[in-house]
Amino acid sequence: MEFTPNRIYRIIIMGSITLNFANDLNVSLQKNTGDTVFFQDGSSNIYEIGSCTNITDTAITCNIEDSALRPTAGDFIFFAKNREINTSGLLGYYAEIDVEVTSNQFKELFAVNSEVSLSS
């Protein structure tokens, strides 16, 4: 990166933090995929810790900005999956269905619905 004189730059220094737990962790947290770890303090404020860089059965290591708040004992730790990587369900731009009546009696179709959502 080239620096230009008389210009202000924001330089972020990243450290790491390891969170240790007494119980096994959720197996869906993945390292180096953009899964982001957060914490909620006793006042219900939510803060981002950073992206998960390593995980064991009982510990999570994350990137964290040096100026960021750190969780303390008793804070609620949770994570969010990377939405670009962890999606599931049908892929494509359209769906085609066949509806068949197998009875000899008169039937009336009132509606056909579908629901589309991102999920992991």
Strand content: 25-35%
Shape: elongated
Widest sheet: strand ordering: 1-4-3-2-5
Number of strands: 5
H-E order: EEEEE
Average pLDDT over all residues: 82
The percent of residues in helical segments reads under 10%
The largest sheet is: 5 strands, antiparallel
Radius of gyration over all CA atoms, rounded: 24 Å
Structural class: mainly beta
Q: Tell me the span between the first and last alpha carbons.
A: 37 Å
How many helical stretches?
Answer: 0
What's this, in brief?
The protein is an all-beta fold and 120 residues long.
Key terms:
120 residues; mainly beta; five-stranded antiparallel beta sheet; 5 strands; elongated
Topology:
Blueprint: E1 14-20, E2 36-40, E3 46-55, E4 59-65, E5 76-80
Give a structural overview.
With 120 residues, the protein is mainly β. Helices cover 0% and strands 28% of the residues. The chain has no helices and 5 strands.
